[in-house]
Amino acid sequence: MRGHGALLFPFLAWMATLCAADTKPPVEVGSARAVAGQKVRGVLKVAESADGTPIVLPLTIAAGRKPGPVVWVQAATHGDEYGGARALQDVVRGLDPATMSGTLVAAMIANPPAFQGLSRVNPNWDDLMDSGDAFPGKDRFATERIAAAIHDAVRKSAEYFVDMHTGGDRFRQHPFVLYSVAAGAGTERLDDLARGFGVPTLWRDSVKIFPTSASTVFSGEGIPGFLLEVGGGQPLDPADVRLQADAIRSFLRAVGILPGSPTRLKSYTVVSGYRIVTNARGGFFDAAVKAGDRVKEGTVLGTITDVHGDVVETLLAPAGSDVVLGVSTYPATPTGGWLLELGSGLTETP
After folding, report:
1. Distance between CA 325 and CA 347 in Å, rounded?
2. Which residues, 6+ apart, have CB-to-CB distance to 217 below 8 Å?
3. What span, in angstroms and rounded, lies between the C-alpha atoms of 190 and 181?
4. What is the 3-state secondary structure (H, E, C) of the chain?
5. β-bridge partners, 327
6. Which of 22, 122, 171, 252 could staple 258 via S-S, CB 3.0–4.6 A?
7. The pTM is what?
């Protein structure tokens, strides 16, 4: 009997684990409560307008028939980044919960005041804070309160976090996945998950360059977090929307929510450094490079032409420059314009 008991106990423990997984409470965020095999919509109240009207995040929770991980994906952290929201719509619309194992929480608009104001940030003069630098949030400005509400909801419900971005209405980004191995969550695991998006360029941050961004904060708390950046500018490019939607679907396959294998590339371009290029003179900006171009020190990036038509400044790539991550699409700029983003420390890796 003693020998049979020794075999029986591990079996019973295993069965208890399975039962616990099957009876895990459904994901509930605000007014949206997951139902196995269905998509449900709801809202999460995060603040109030001056007239007391609730400010809410519109949510869709898609729950598979089978248990599995929970992924939180959000778009429009910056209110003028419409392409991410359109891509997330495409992802949610195409999901079949009957074939899913786990749950997707889709926050369709993560910064309602900025989106309503057709602005990158909340246009309220008492705020004007970048939501990308507001985590984990606090009880202060509206943007920080929204970040705190998202932070609390993700911590309670999700095992993975993805923040969908674009260059907004006046900047165009080269597609990349940004993640911070300095934040924690397991370096090898983060590297592997980042490759699961199927995007050729990875920005592997090793210094926590954006320490208060959502993806960095969540990775530091043990929830692998990623920022997926694609395109931008006006009008929206349907190819950008498809690329971003496909990247999210690939990631959902990588973590086991969707059936099938993620898109795995033969090689990836990995950058570790970052540089913003601004101008000393005001005028009209003409870019000489496009997002994704390879550059080196001294490469001409663009020019500034004054109101009389004279070129008054030529912008050159600084030392260590390797690739153009983003380019402004706005035709004129004062001194100090955010005109280009460059990646450095480039390597090609499997």
Report:
1. 15
2. 135, 136, 151, 183, 211, 225
3. 7
4. CHHHHHHHHHHHHHHHHHHHHHCCCCCEECCEECCCCEEEEEEEEEEECCCCCEEEEEEEEEECCEEEEEEEEECCCCCCCHHHHHHHHHHHHHCCHHHCEEEEEEECCCCHHHHHCCCCCCCCCCCCCCHHHCCCCCCCCHHHHHHHHHHHHHHHHCCEEEEEECCHHHEEEEEEEEEECCCCCCHHHHHHHHHCCCCCEEEEECCCCCCCCHHHHHHHCCCCEEEEEEECCCCCCHHHHHHHHHHHHHHHHHCCCCCCCCCCCCCEEEECEEEEECCCCCEEEEECCCCCCECCCCCEEEEEECCCCCEEEEEECCCCEEEEEEEECCCEECCCCCCEEEEECCEEEC
5. 172, 340
6. 252
7. 0.92
Residue 33: name the closest of 23, 22, 21, 44 by CA: 44
Average pLDDT taken over every residue of the chain: 94
Nearest residue to 213 via CA among 200, 231, 229, 191:
229
Residue 183: the pLDDT is 75
Band of the pLDDT at 22, cuts 50, 70, 90?
low
pLDDT computed for residue 334 by the predictor: 98
The per-residue pLDDT for 23 is 62
Query: Can you read off the two tokens belonging to residue 88?
Result: 């997330």
All residues at 6 or more sequence positions from 11 whose CB lies less than 8 Å from its CB, including other chains: none
Q: Render pLDDT for 175-230 as a digit per residue (tens, 0 to 9).
A: 999 999 997 768 999 999 999 999 999 999 999 999 999 999 999 999 999 999 99
Instruction: Supply the pLDDT for residue 20.
Output: 45
What's the token pair of residue 201?
């360029």
Residue 240 has phi, psi (to 5 degrees) of: -65, -45
